[in-house]
Amino acid sequence: MTFSKTYDKFVLLKKGKIQDREMGKAKMGIVINHSENIFLLQTRSNSYAFGIDDQGLVRHLYWGKRINEVEDFELPVLTEVSTNDPVYEITREEFPVYGSLRYKEHCLKVTFADGVREVVYEYVGYRIENGESCEELILELKDRHYALKMELHYKVYEAYDLMERFIVLHNASGETMEVEQLQSGQFHIPYENLNFSNVHGHWGAEQQRFVQKVSYGKIVIENRRGISSHNHNPYFILDRDATETSGDVYFGALRQSGNFSGVVEQTPYGGTLVQMGLNAHDFCLELKAGEHFASPAILCGYSDCGFETMSHRLHRFANDFILSEGFRPVLYNSWEATEFGVTCEEQKKLAKKAKELGAELFVVDDGWFGERNGIDNGLGDWYVNEKKFPNGIDELIREVKSLGMMFGIWVEPEMVNPPTKLFAEHPDWIYHFDTRTSDTSRGQYVLDLTKAEVKSFLYEMLDNLLSGHEIDYIKWDANRPISQTNLHRDLWYRHIEAVYDIVKALKKKHPHVLFEACASGGGRIDYGILGIFDDFWTSDNTDAYDRLTIQDSYSYIYPIKAMRAWVTDCPNFISARMIPLKFRFHSAMMGSLGIGCNVLKFTEEDTAMAKEMIREYKEIRPIVQEGIFYRLENPSANDYAVYEYQKEEKGLIFAFLAQGKIGHRSTTVRFRGLEADAVYTVLLENGELKKSGAYLMQHGLELRLNGDYASTLIRFAKCETGRA
Ligand code: DGJ
User: Fold this and answer.
1) Low-confidence ranges of the chain (pLDDT < 50)
2) Atom 11, ligand 1: residue with shortest CA distance
3) Is the bond into 571 cis (omega within 30 degrees of 0)?
């Protein structure tokens, strides 16, 4: 298999947008009542409404299930009831700014050149633009005194039941303005006592879903580290006691990997507000004369039928618009097998064995460059280590290519270790304050990517790497947060923008290369980096049982195709658990499969099982990576985890039972998303059944797994011939 054929197979498959596949003609997404200045944004099943009142205030009116008539909406005149409750406090605003009698959360705070720090806007007008599968409403506001223009952008993806909101600021004055707070939008949910869910976690334990009641006071989730985080994730989900398949769910995901913040507040006046955007902590953006600045967008929506629909909408949008095309290859990564002890000979052996098992991409991880024998040296010196690769890295690449695999390589470009040549030559390239000592973490400093020369150096280094060698895949790591910054308080945003710019430019020149976003595991999982990068390294925790929790939480918001999951050795280096290879495979087959074992130690039995599992994964890959994903209910007293994937007429179910208890009680697998009247062939490990869609969805199948760490893969397909 040649390099370009391999590439074609994985990257160039054509995407079908939802309109072509399912929706037919798109309907008008933006409806305007001109006499009342009311705007109604219509998606297939939702409506979002706001209006401009007689004072020029942009007032929120509605978000929820579809209401067809724009004439139904009204903008009552605001009257103050008490001086202690100013109208601004009571009124639901689309874009509250800092100033006047406003004390609530605001989206924008600006200090003008003369020191005034109040924004007073007026409505200028609107325009509508047509984008790919969306209509975009742009509401134009300007400050009454200063030449600051503000645009509220709403992209309406009618067929996807989603919207994107963001703000564009334009300094049309001759002087610099300081933007101290910029949130991408405020939302109002007309209910109290909602449930808020997000994830908490830390290294090795990312994506731990939590749900908490919203009451009075505020809930804040944020990241202050610059390098995204394992702790919380830039999205909100607010629900009214929803389940997977019922209930109201409001959600929004911020397209940003740097410092973010989100606030949820049940207001004293009824209802709940939520906003999300750039974290105001240590933030100040200098908007110079003539400059524009666009905030990151929030991808948002509402489901009246539970979390499943929310996930489906986001997954489908990500697959159609955000992710690069094509299926993700089965990769082998050598990190857990060799760590820093990389040698050309051993990598070649690993590659040969990985190929025998069925891997399609071989990735050499950390340790191939500079004087990298541990964490404290090498980063920054991106030349091939001659002791480890006496004939250069191409010897390994040639071997990998001759085996018919793609080749991938690990880098951590944003960092530098103190003993390196790079640091000796450019000690001022790291984030630092002249009068302070910069902290090392994992023995490294962070390069100041807001400096143009550092950004160019990194681009050129990576461009040379990709131009000089046949590389198909970059695993881009980032193993520490930023500290001691520089003097500019916009770095929390500018740093990640520089990363995005570098990768975008590299992809333009090397369009076949896939990029994996890794930050000590899953520290950079967000809709900002997704699409610029192709895969997420979900977690360094590769324990197959722990991964079920991580993967489950991940799936609420993020698409399965981007979820890298490896099978690794036991005892697992984090959990020390021993888990059968079959369970480990099934757990990793739930995403984009990778192998991280020391495959040279595989027994004949392991080899046979790995070959069979990888063969089967390749068969089901289109369904797993681009199908519709369901978190199925487990009605059993035993702790089964059951997931369904479906694409067109075919589907599959993974079921897991980590520990059998309560008399080996079975579970009932109730399928989702089938055609009630169609007949399906269901392939179980011990035989085949034919059942109607209605039976499988309503009655379900009894499934009993025995013993600890038991798992199974059930496949099904619609029978064109019915029961015959
Ligand atoms: C952290 C990553 O998450 C690991 O997969 C591995 O690449 C190491 N860094 C290498 O230093």
Assistant:
1) 1-27
2) 366
3) yes
